[in-house]
Design goal:
185 residues; alpha+beta; HIT family, subunit A; five-stranded antiparallel sheet; 5 strands; 32% helix
């Protein structure tokens, strides 16, 4: 699970972007531009969601523009160890965040990938899902199977582009949350 010799970067992000109070509305889980300050952690985190049990932020080594990570707030190593309300909350946010990524990037085809353990290509041993937009033109990589599991040629996320993209995702996610209030569930 957690390697005690090195701190978990996802736990650091979760700690830097606290959850809203339990009595808050869903919209309170979407940080404002002022509270989403990326420099709260190093490397910078471009946070889109900070709910009670889930945080979502841009991948710092994205496979494509808009590559979003959706992680449990508390440290859990593999998805089989996620229990109760945490699992329900992850399941609640994934469709909203997927629609957000599609709307912001203009790419309606995407993968949701979740790896469990080092042999399954899990690099950070903390449960997280990748929402990876799949545009019509993809960069060429030597092994297409590696691309599916998060390896391959990846460039660092530019801080200015990350801030702009995360800001737009927060705006669209707020709209998604507001539309839930108007929908008949």
């Amino acid at each position: 699970m957690n390697d005690d010799t090195s701190p978990c970067p996802f736990c650091a992000i979760a700690a830097a972007y606290p959850a809203p109070p339990a009595s808050s509305t869903l919209a309170a889980s979407v940080p404002t531009d002022a509270t989403a300050a990326p420099e709260r952690v190093s490397p910078s985190a471009f946070v889109v969601l900070a709910s009670r049990d889930v945080v979502a932020f841009l991948d710092i080594l994205p496979m494509t523009a808009g590559h979003l990570l959706v992680a449990t707030r508390g440290h859990v190593g593999i998805v089989g160890d996620v229990v109760g309300e945490v699992g329900r909350e992850v399941g609640f946010w994934l469709p909203l965040l997927s629609r957000t990524v599609a709307k912001v990037t203009g790419v309606t085809d995407y993968n949701i990938v979740q790896n469990n353990g080092a042999r399954a290509a899990q690099v950070v041993p903390h449960v997280h899902f990748h929402i990876i937009p799949r545009p019509e033109t993809m960069p060429q990589v030597q092994s297409k199977s590696w691309t599916m599991f998060g390896r391959g040629q990846r460039d660092e996320l530019d801080d200015d582009e990350g801030a702009e993209l995360a800001g737009e995702m927060r705006r669209v996610l707020r709209e998604e949350v507001e539309s839930l209030g108007r929908a008949k569930l």
